[in-house]
Amino acid sequence: MSTSEMLEATERQRTAAAEAAANLRVPAGHVLATLRNRLAYSTESAATALGITERHLLQIESGIRSATGVLIDAMAELYGVDPGELSTRGVAQRVASTLDSDKNVLWLGWLPVELDAVHDNEALLRSISRNIRSMRCLGETQPIYIRTTDLSLLAAVIDLDDPDLPSICMQHLRLTLMESMDLVTTLRSQPSAVARPFSVPSDADSRPAQRPATPAVSADA
After folding, report:
1. C-alpha distance from residue 83 to each of 71, 79, 174, 188, 215 (Å)
2. pTM for the full model?
3. 130 pLDDT band (50/70/90 cuts)?
4. 58: nearest Cα among 115, 114, 2, 141
5. Rg of the chain taking only CA atoms, in angstroms
6. The pLDDT value given to residue 90
7. Coil, strand, or helix at residue 99?
8. Which of 73, 77, 118, 147 could form a disulfide with 124 if both were Cys (CB 3.0 to 4.6 A apart)?
């Protein structure tokens, strides 16, 4: 490899590293939700005032989407804060979701779902929604939108042959019927999608799962 080729390769590595580092830092949506709640704005009224859909606002507050530029300025004006406060506060690192096949534990960010303890989609989706609501600071009635990077993991642990799956998604993820059907269709299209036979209850190991000491980090947790 020539000197120029080595320099180009080094520069590409630096650029990729910089982009990866930038993707690991995202505005924490709960900061925006706290500001909105402090002024007693509903998600619907705040979204209308900002000129965006309620779903868009919920995705920002859930950390799925980031607010930048003009929208940051509009939020700052609506909530009565300095724009810099919204663009620099509450920056958090996203932790990648993983499936520990040896211990049969699904890690959604830093919270575990012990698969041996759930025996149907109802229990599984209940556990998943509880953990996601905790991590994203979502209320019980707010919808949960699954990150793209988590789809293959969920497809590997959910019983996708369950005819009641769309209604279970509606109940626990607070999605509309159309959104639930779209989610189920997407899950079934994942390469990891399988018909998952739920395990029989076992008391073989009741110890709580422990997150690996050095979790992988992803732009979507």
Report:
1. 10, 10, 32, 42, 33
2. 0.54
3. very high
4. 141
5. 20
6. 52
7. strand
8. 118
